[in-house]
Amino acid sequence: MDKPLVGGQAVVEGVMFQTKNRMVTAIRRNNDVIQYFEMERPQKEWAQKLKKIPILRGNVAILESSIYGMKHLEFATDRYERDPEDDISIEDEKQAVNQTKVVLSTIIVGILSFLIGKFLFTLIPVFVAEVFSGAITSHFGQVFLESLFKLILLLGYIYVISMTPMIKRLFQYHGAEHKVINTFEDGRPLTIENVQRHSRLHYRCGSSFILFTVLVGFVVYMFVPVEPFYVRILNRIALIPVVIGVSFEFLQLTNKLRDVPVFKWLGFPGLLLQYLTTKQPDDTQVEVAIHSFNKLLRRD
């Protein structure tokens, strides 16, 4: 029997794991109790058709991850900030909330957050490169400078936020997520000891995807004009889906070829970035990740 393909993400004081059918989050409350949140992944026929089209399927996958992941982040943040004694029953909570409004607001917030972040990291480097357009006039030089600043902006942003206590713990849970998936894919029992022996880096990580958008963007932008400036702005915005789609395909390719010695190096840049986006988790964090993963497998 083939193992299911499992992905995941870190949330506040917990980990979310997902297959193509279901998502499960486990978090540790401030009273040391592990609490779960789970939901089925809607299987929309139109989305499934789009996922069969190269380049386009990457945009669908990223958009879905942003939307559904936001729901789990909301759950984790709400439970983290709420005193367990103030909890109401699940049934009362369901009756108190208009589910349609929750879904719509989650979708809107997820889409806007993704687009705003992507626009900022795409357009700010364009303006910086334009500042130096008098000194660096070649097409290659302008695209290289833009991509270099984008990379510096990305690494600097991750480094700065990783110094805050909450983000550091989030990155520890990110490491726990990877360790659990690596242990599972290695065929080892999910014990704390086994999980801690495995790497906190993983080829399919979204951190690698973010880095690939910088590298892929550099190649794609070499084939489009940078002058006049407004054309450069417009083509950068228009090419966002292309860069996302190609980066997604490249991420999938590096994962498939990771056991082929000749091509294994393709995933190394993404793995190196994960030294910033993951931290070594402690045993209690690994325990939460194991609980989340096991519950997913039982439900899926």
TrEMBL record:
Pfam families: DUF1385
Descriptive protein name: DUF1385 domain-containing protein
InterPro entries tied to this protein: DUF1385 (IPR010787)
Coiled coil (residue ranges): none
First and last residue of the signal peptide: none
Keywords from the UniProt entry: Membrane, Transmembrane, Transmembrane helix
TM helices/strands, residue ranges: 102-128, 140-160, 201-223, 229-251
